[in-house]
Amino acid sequence: MTAVGVVMATTAGMVLSTEVYAQSAGAIVVQGNRRIEADTVRSYFRTGPGESLSAARVDEAIKAMYATGLFRDVRVSRQGGRLVVQVAENEVINRVAFEGNRRLKTEQLQGEIESRARGTFSRATVQSDTQRLYDVYRRTGRQEVEIVPKTIEQPNGRIDLIFEITEGRKAGVRAINFVGNNAFGRQRLLDVMSTSESGILSWLKSNDVYDADRLNADQEAIRRLYLRSGYVDMRVLSARADFDQASNTFTVYIEIEEGPQYRIGTVDVQSNIRDVDGATLRGAVKTAPGAVYNVELVDKSLEDVTLEVARRGYAFAAVRPRGERDPSTLTVNLVYVVEEGPRVYVERINVRGNTRTQDRVIRREFDMAEGDAYNRVLVDRAERRLRNLGFFKEVKITTEPGSAADRVIVNVEVQDQPTGAFSIAGGFSTADGFIAEASVEERNFLGRGQFVRLGGMYGQRSRGINFSFTEPFLMDYRLSGGFDLFYRHTSRATFQPFESTSYGGTLRLGIPITEQFAMQLRYSAVSQRISMRDDQLNCFTGYGGQLSRYADGQFFEATDPRTAGRGAGTPQFTDANGLPTAVNTGTPYSCLRDGEVSAALRAINNRTRFISMVGYSLIYSNLDRATNPTQGLFAELRQDVAGVGGNARFVRTIGDARYYHDLTNDWVGMLRVQGGHIAGLGGRLDSVDQFFMGPELVRGFQTAGIGPRDFAIRQAAAAQGINRDADAIGGTMYWGASAEVTFPITFLPRDFGMRGALYADAGSVWGYNSVRSFNTGVGGVNLPVTLDGSDAHKIRSSVGVGLLWNSPFGPIRFDYSFVLSKARGDQTQAFRFSGGTRF
């Protein structure tokens, strides 16, 4: 009630004395009303039989009328035996408008206020709306914003409500300072915060402004970081933001008390349910004695034990952890207590705030439905899943009592956010040259939670187009299904002396086994055509440049067209008298100068290969985050079998594992091992099916720079003083191991997003198993494949330094490597650059 209302209520009490006899309906006169019926006003002043209309009752009626928001003024007086109620109704809002808002859209501001067109005007509501608009602007860093609500009178008791806004300058976060952090460096703490510092790239981001809600969330993120690393006593003592009016910036101070690091002592499961043996539940526990205490593993253990007990028929069982700290040994003894919980059922699940995402997309993330037993652990899991979808700006799940004592209502509040993206990418790498890519994708297609992507790529050495579609809940089961279609053309390069045109597709089925372990099944069908230019083949076909051979294996070129097709062995030339002779005419090997290719590659020239294969992948990941991980393990085993139709037949197996560990002071260590094997089914492999490895295995080598090579053409060219590399022809086996440490570059601003790296790589490729010679079809000449020792299982190794730039335009990496060991024919490349731009 406004101050005017308070004065009027007091006046009414003075006029009416202490008690007035009950008034009849006709004795209450209403004046000044235009839209509101007089009986509606009288209803506030009526009394029951035998009751008196006292001054207190009148005061209550006036307050109730103000509370409706329909009146801006109410006056009560007594005229003879009548009670006169003089009212002034609030105007009706004709429209609500915003002026001066350039940084925030009108639609966004309209969603924050309660005043609406065709609604009743209320000064109290307008004041509340103004305060909310201040809060919205200040969350975007506009501390100097000024908002003035104004009204413009219109005919028939209507008004226009105008909010005049002067947005002011953006107030950024100048610095974020930490006190008391020893276990984690400043950079590591900043990495988990959503608030960032202002810098030269502030025009590209919006999280470098002070927001109290965001800072509260940052404190929780920091606390979770410490709890994942065993600091169970950790506390955020204070977090404050000091505003400097002169510079229009904030300085954030976060004071931390870390405490010691704890490890897990003993782990036990105690069951208070008669038919459930706690020992049989130990397999569902993820925490192990001796390991560093990790709150996420404790939460995961709660989920898994709860689900296991529910599977045994105890849907209402509750699991709670009990931890006993031992400061003398710095250990936490964990006991998971299982007991029968209250029998509470889910009466209803309300989903609110989703303007785009369909209800079923949200509901399917719950492992319980309406009518099922209520379990808080499963609700927490659903909330985490909804956040991880990336569809919502905000997710909040609350409960309220249902219609009975054993019923509960679950309320899910979400706020949709944009999930589509259009990107243009460009980059350059020492392997692929310049490349440009454009793509459009939608992660929540039509609000159904489906993923759709269409992309095109054009570069110096390759071009193509691809389309992907994924349904994350196939047939309403927690199975992901999808398909990929692609077309790709790759031009010849120094490491690939042929052109390749491929098109095809893949059908995928993803099967989650646990939260961290999954399987993927797939079927792929690919049509591939490999072609080479005539000048890469002219030493062995046609008349000009036919190759013949002496018995000792040396190659000679017969340039006289009249000698073509006379067979291998001694080249046929004629002397001055026209008689045959075995003397070389001395014509240089011109055909060897223009890029002759290996017999292993010639064997697949101008062939259309149809590859039909089935495969599966087993994937395990407990990484702390998908990009730039600092803790955890990622491991994948892939196996594909080609030969389900088509003309390619092989079994290919690939394994890859990476382990990340957060070292001290923002240094992150990574160990990686990888390996592969491919074997033909019922015959030899085509060379292109084998493994061509380079910097992805051992940095410091060119693309396809490691492994077996064909020296036959190289030797023939060398005999004529022509220098050329041996062709890479691939191997059937490889292994690799890498160790890398990344660290912050402290003398650069954090906005630069740069980190340094030190690494060491080792690996090998061997086991060539394709054609050993190729018949040219001219005179029966067979071109051999000469490995010349390059197929030995020899370890290649290197060490190097790198610079990683996680720029706003995409990740960029520079590496400079020093090769320590290599095999005959390997091609090195000390400097390597790769990167891209996204905007």
Write up what this structure looks like.
This protein folds into 7 domains: 87 residues, Ubiquitin-like (UB roll); 75 residues, Roll (Ubiquitin-like (UB roll)); 86 residues, Ubiquitin-like (UB roll); 78 residues, Roll (Ubiquitin-like (UB roll)), CATH 3.10.20; 71 residues, Ubiquitin-like (UB roll) (Roll), CATH 3.10.20; 49 residues, no CATH class; 189 residues, Beta Barrel (Porin), CATH 2.40.160.50. The strands form 10 sheets. The chain has a 17-stranded antiparallel beta sheet, with no helix packed on it. Strands 1-3-2 form a 3-stranded mixed beta sheet. The N terminus is likely disordered. Helix 1 runs antiparallel to helix 3. The protein has 12 helices and 40 strands. The chain has 839 residues and is mostly beta strands.
Quick gist of this model?
With 839 residues, the protein is mainly beta.
Which secondary-structure class do the elements indicate?
mainly beta
Residues in β-strands, percent:
35-45%
- CATH topology grouping of the largest domain: Porin
Write down the oligomeric state: single chain
Count of discrete structural domains: 7
Regions with pLDDT < 50 over 5+ consecutive residues? 1-25, 541-589
The count of β-strands is: 40
The CATH architecture of the largest domain can be named as Beta Barrel
State the major sheet.
Answer: 17 strands, antiparallel
Overall pLDDT confidence? 82
Termini gap:
52 Å
The top-level CATH class of the largest domain is Mainly Beta
CATH superfamily membership of the largest domain, which one? membrane protein fhac: a member of the omp85/tpsb transporter family
